[in-house]
Amino acid sequence: MTDISLETEGLGRHFGALTAVNGVDFKLAAGARHALIGPNGAGKTTFVNLLTGVLTPTRGRVLLAGRDITARAQAERVKLGIARTFQINRLFRGLSVLENVCISVAERVGAATSMFYPAGRRVDVIDESMDLLDTLKLGDAARHCVSELPYGRQRLVELAIAIGLRPRVLLLDEPAAGVPSAETHIILDAIERLPEQIAVLIIEHDMDVVFRFAKRVTVMVGGAVFAEGTPREIEANPHVREVYLGQAALSAAHG
Amino acid sequence: MFATHSPFAVGWGAGSLVIENIDFAGILLGGLSAGTVLFIVSVGLSITMGLMGFVNLAHGAFAMFGGYVIVLAMNRAHVGFAAALALGFLAAAALGAVLERLLYRRLYRAGELDQVLFTIGLIFIFIAATVIVVGPESQLLTLPQSLRGQLDLGFTHYRTYSVFLIVVGFLIVAGIWLAIERTRIGAQIRATVDNRRMAESLGINVDRLFTITFAFGSGMAAIGGGLGAEFLGLDPQYALKYLVYFLIVVSVGGLGSVVGVYCAALLLGVLDFVLKLYVPKGGTMFIYVLTILLLLWRPQGLFGRKET
Amino acid sequence: MSVALAPAGAAAAAARLAHPAARTLIRRHHLRWWEALPWAAAIGFYFAFPAYLAFGTELLITVLFALSLDLALGYAGIITLGHAAFFGAGAYAVGLLAFHGIWTEPITSLALAALVAAAIGFASGLVLLRTRGLTLLMLTICTMALLQEAANMAHDYTGGFDGLPNLPIAPVFGVFAFNPLYDNTQYLYALAVLLVSFLFVRTLVYSPFGQSLTGIRENLLRMHAVGAPVRWRLTVCYTISAALAGVAGGLWAQTNAYVNLSALDLDRAATVLIILILGGYGRLYGAFVGAVVYLALEHFLARVYPTAWQLGLGLLLVLIALFAHNGILGIGAMLWRRYGRGRAEA
Questions:
Q1: Which residues form the domain of A36?
Q2: Number of domain units in chain A
Q3: Which sign does the torsion angle of CA B68, B73, B77, B81 carry?
Q4: C315 and B131: CB-CB below 8 Å?
Q5: A234, part of any domain
Q6: CA-based, 20 to 30 A from B1: which of A165, B188, C189, C266?
Q7: In this predicted model, what pLDDT tens digit does every residue of A1-30 receive, in sequence order?
Q8: Hey, are the CB atoms on B248 and C313 less than 8 Å from each other?
């Protein structure tokens, strides 16, 4: 067996004349805590969409545990163990927190195609969902309509839906985006306590988050891998500082 | 309730046209003039739908309202044709602006279902109000002397009014196209269709822009209602009768695309005219099949931009 | 520490399932006492208003039609203005078979009507449900219009604009004949069909499949991301919804003993949409409330003051769209939450 859970070979995607992702070779180790950083427009979200199957690549391959999944549809990849969260919350807004998680769990255990018995009889689904909410400290909010929660806790539900799929690979697209700084610790705590066997790829702008969480960092610039290494190496890399931190300083100056 | 006969059963009223010599040019001109009317009514719908993403089924009601103002001004107050058109434009634009500010605005963020419901309700109110204020009978447009009769085009003789319509339609599409491409407000519209949030952050007053375009679209609909009264007739059921045709034109042309709506309207006009003449039964079926196939092939319409 | 995979002790599980949120989900499908009310009212109506049974039959059929739409629109969020396509398909299936003397047994005819409508629903759903929004709205309208034109053109079989009158329908179970003057049989027959269909829809809606439809309605993209075959599931839902609309159409043809083009009208499609939204969509009983209120008002108001009826209806729709997003039942639920909280938990 391989200890690489997710891998890309020469993965590329262009939209007309614009090349968003340009021949990326990338390896996500099993149980990794990996961060993907890069300036705006570096192709990070396109890359995630290629990994999850929302977009089809114009070239290259995606491998999951050594198996070519390039041609697989999004739903199939989820079944194979790739889950994601979104940069902007995508929740079932009219439903309760518990229902939000139940939908994901029911889908995973294959209950969702059953038409002729009540969902309430799937106690296993409800129990597992409640358990998940408890471990994420969302138990007290289980019955609230998800849109009534403060944004930070909504981000947590976003995470819970993905974890409910019991993924092997979890892609977190800016999990702390939009969360007031007073609430970011809720998200970070939850991410730190994710099961070790899940390989986590986090896309993040916030360097504090990246350095606190990641054991390995990949920098993307202009659709290609610019540098890769431990957080310390990346921090010390003068080119990265120039490209990435320079840009940050620039945007900070423009406010 | 709804029209006693469905919009599908009603044709273009092409039969009411006096067609002396059915030759190729005649068919083309007839179709083009019908298509032009369709374009003038629908163009506002396309712009506002593209800009605001609002499913405004009541657009035809503004055409009806304006058409009534125009025809009644001419028939009862003996206002001249051009003045009546201007009056109709202003009246519908004013009404559009008021309704946009008071009601439509509240539903921009609502789901399509609420928008559909709201605009169907609005249609009913317009219909009932028209019956109460004016009466259920249909109104006739009396053309000025100068637009009656036949015109010698060199290669053929054709109704002066139809030729007039085609020319006016061309001027309108050219005018709107230039306005959108070349003027400041046009640039603002393009930017907002592209990316509303970006436009707002650039300091464009999106609220004001919506009101202006909505009023303008309603005004254009009024002109279409008046100019087209001869083809389409004008009665309280107008807004429902032709709803499907307006929607076909807008969705086939592509939301927000003026040129797209123009092409789709002319295409539909000519096609309908030809089919009514040669395949009196089942011709409409062909139009529906074509629309379905086209929308399956390009859900965003002929000239629409792909959603990202 | 493990989050999702923690093995749970029985006591812990029991505690979790006792949580109010979990209890709500576990009990949601249980029958409530008030769910007997519509049926009691329907039977009461039979004895109280024998002169109005024709109206009552129309009402029951409208409820069924609205219920079929609720499944597609209220639960799966498929916004359609072309649902009369399936109503008409069912009506014409029954009508053609009976008129040409091929098959007149009512119950099997209804099954065939469901089958025909389901086939059309499946075929159109397979291609249409790729699209959303205005495009989908247009495609549903055009499909319906296409069927109407086809029915109009096939004049030799369908009677074209005039339709098929005087359909011979065999007695139910070979015993209970449809009498055009007394609607007793029609009413009870329609009521029985509605009850069976309702129980079916109710089961479906509370099933895991029904929950996943709600998920699709609430967030399409997320449903893709949890690995649901969204388009396939929508197609299945649309097909079932079409079959039920076909049954409603078949019932309509049988109880009226005629079919005409009005079965496929935009008028009919828009009216059923209005009825459903008036009552409240996505909550099963909205179809009942909407149909009763709408048809009663129409019956007593529209004949006398058609313009006032239209004006009032227009105003009502505008108000519902602006202020009461989920119809009469939605308003009721809101009032219940505001003033009846506490008791609601009992």
A1: 4-90+166-254
A2: 1
A3: negative
A4: no
A5: yes
A6: C189
A7: 458 889 999 999 988 778 889 889 999 998
A8: no
